[in-house]
Design brief:
elongated, Transposase, 57 residues, 3 helices, single chain
Length: 57
């Protein structure tokens, strides 16, 4: 996660200096909550999403 944050900051800061750490963190959080935990299937969880695995609706 740290490497992803660092890479996003390096790419973003090079093209738009207004992107800061808080901006990047918000978008990573949105990605994790919006796709990674709710839609992406994880093989370690029996090809279910983390939300399905935990039984959270």
């Amino acid at each position: 996660m740290i490497l992803l944050l660092r890479e996003m900051m390096n790419q973003s800061l090079g093209t738009c200096p207004n992107f800061g750490v808080q901006f990047i963190r918000k978008h990573i959080k949105d990605y994790i909550e919006g796709f990674y935990n709710s839609q992406r299937l994880h093989s370690g969880l029996g090809y279910r999403t983390p939300i399905e695995f935990e039984g959270i609706s």
